[in-house]
Amino acid sequence: MQLAGEVGARVIGTGRTADRDRAAELGVHTFLDLETEKLEDAGEVDVVFDVIGGDILTRSAALVRAGGTLVTIAEPPKTLPRDGRAIFFLVEADRGQLADLATRVRDGRLKPVVGAVLPLAEAAAAFAPGKRTPGKTILRVAED
């Protein structure tokens, strides 16, 4: 969301009521509360970036305008956007990209979202199916 906003994209975010304020802080222009609104209310979009997969990915693919792009890191899409393209990729460390992201964090242009910092012993519970944490979960390997 933050990177898309930085390059001038109009960002539509989805989530639950509790996510609305945080999404606005991260640069979301329009927020759809999936507890009370339909994803389809967003209308057609140029690009979908999905990190969830499953039903939400399938529903999102239907919103990509002709010639648009569906990007996902969750799973290869089963449904492709009409007259568009779908991109599935795995994240690989890249020194140049990591340096660029570090600079953006240092400059305050990018704000990492940490949802929880937990001891390694709680890893299974932290990543249990259905567990929702806004932001990233950091596992602490050793005490400070």
Short description:
By secondary structure, the chain is of the alpha/beta class. It contains 5 helices and 7 strands. It comes from Mycobacterium montefiorense.
Lay out the secondary structure.
Elements: H1 2-6, E1 12-15, H2 20-25, E2 30-33, E3 45-50, H3 54-61, E4 64-72, E5 85-88, H4 95-107, E6 114-119, H5 123-126, E7 136-140
Parallel strand pairs: 1-2, 3-4, 4-5, 6-7
Organism: Mycobacterium montefiorense
Protein name: Alcohol dehydrogenase-like C-terminal domain-containing protein
InterPro entries: NAD(P)-bd_dom_sf, YIM1/Zinc_Alcohol_DH_Fams
Q: Please, could you describe this protein's structure?
A:
The chain is of the alpha/beta class and 144 residues long. It folds into 2 domains: 2-113, NAD(P)-binding Rossmann-like Domain (Rossmann fold, 3-Layer(aba) Sandwich), CATH 3.40.50; 114-144, no CATH class. Helix content is 25%, strand content 26%. It is built from 5 helices and 7 strands; from the N terminus they run αβαββαββαβαβ. It has helices spanning 2-6, 20-25, 54-61, 95-107, 123-126, and strands spanning 12-15, 30-33, 45-50, 64-72, 85-88, 114-119, 136-140. The chain has a 3-stranded parallel sheet with strand order 3-4-5, covered by helices on one side. The chain is globular.
